[in-house]
Amino acid sequence: MKKRVLILLILTAIWTLGSWWYYTCKIKGFCSASNKALNTETIKAPPVTATNPSRTTQVTDSDGDGLTDAEEKVLGTDPTKTDTDGDGIPDNQEVGSDPTAAIDTDADGEINALDVDDDNDTLNTLLENAIGTNPLQKDSDNDGTDDAVEVGSNTGTPLDTDGDKIINALDPDDDNDGLPSSEEKTLGTNPLKADTDGDGISDAEEVSGSDSNATGPAKDSDGDGIIDALDTTVDPDIGPEIPPEPTQAETTDADKKEEVAKEKPASDEVTIEPVESSANTSIQGSLLYFPFRSAEPKLSKSASKYFTKVANWLKESASNKVVLTGHTDNIGSKAINRKLGLKRAAIIKKMLIKKGAPKKQIKVRSKGETKPIKTNRTEAGRKKNRRVELTPIGKGASSK
User: Fold this and answer.
1) CA-CA distances (angstroms) from residue 239 to 117, 222, 236, 269, 290?
2) pLDDT of 198
3) Which residues are CB-neighbours of 281 under 8 A, at least 6 positions away?
4) Which of 9, 88, 98, 153 is deepest in the core (most CB within 10 A)?
5) Residue range 200-226, pLDDT digits in tens
6) pLDDT for 186 beyond 70
7) 262 in a structural domain
8) In which domain, by residue range, is 273 found?
């Protein structure tokens, strides 16, 4: 009996040990020399790929730019440089929030983090950051001209046409004529030239008018298909015919006196008539008379001498100013005459500038045919109406 019990105990022990060995070595594999115990095993993070960008706490970012080395390897950026393309912007900013869809602004197949010209305007991103233009936008000021064109060939000194300390690539009005460059491109005027047609009147003045009588833009005063800002000539033949001279019975005593008193200056000269001025200045105002249909008149001797005095007076103080108001006879349409009056004022302005007058102290405007001082029924009267009034404005006075 005792032997049976002993044998049973031995067999039970053998079975127990065998079962433990089988479970431990065969099933769990703890007996293999190539494996370590489970409680000391290091579980590595799964590899990061373009299709599996998830991270764990045990990933490597050698350059500390916010992109893992594995992500940079997939993207093609340098895991040892925070700014692979050297454009001054860290890789992670240029890649964006989703490394699987890295930013490519110009869609040229090269992501921004590897592209030295992100907007493909031929200006490298590093330069655009330095001069202040938008490296992600070809036309930073939205004026219709690419940054590279507006910067010019000398990138070290970007173009500033109007000298206002704002480079053209950032300036919405490159020539400072009052018209946005984008509008000038639409009109066909030169956004780099304040007076495209060179007639002495700025583009803005010719597009919108310069005085309170203007009711709106006068883009083509003479209806010849060329807008005023591009039209170098005014055609006074458009409009009513020149009225016939009045008969002897219709001629008034005032008209007769006007004819007798009329001077006979050279046919191509601007003549001068001094007038009393309400301004307390050392310079008298004047009426400057234009020859009929003269685009480039000369100055009479007395007018030339007077212009020299005016120019010197203007140079004495920046507060000294003159207003030049152009007037016309009634030959032609009102719109044409408004422009013609403005052109005459601009011609006088040019003459003063040639005498040394500061151009910023000279204002031009036009009343056209609306303020005649004599009858338009006689040539003598029309001559008086074809004039520019020069009004001096002293310190503290208004030019309106």
Assistant:
1) 57, 9, 7, 25, 20
2) 76
3) 313, 320, 392, 393, 394
4) 88
5) 778 887 787 543 333 445 456 666 566
6) yes
7) yes
8) 255-393
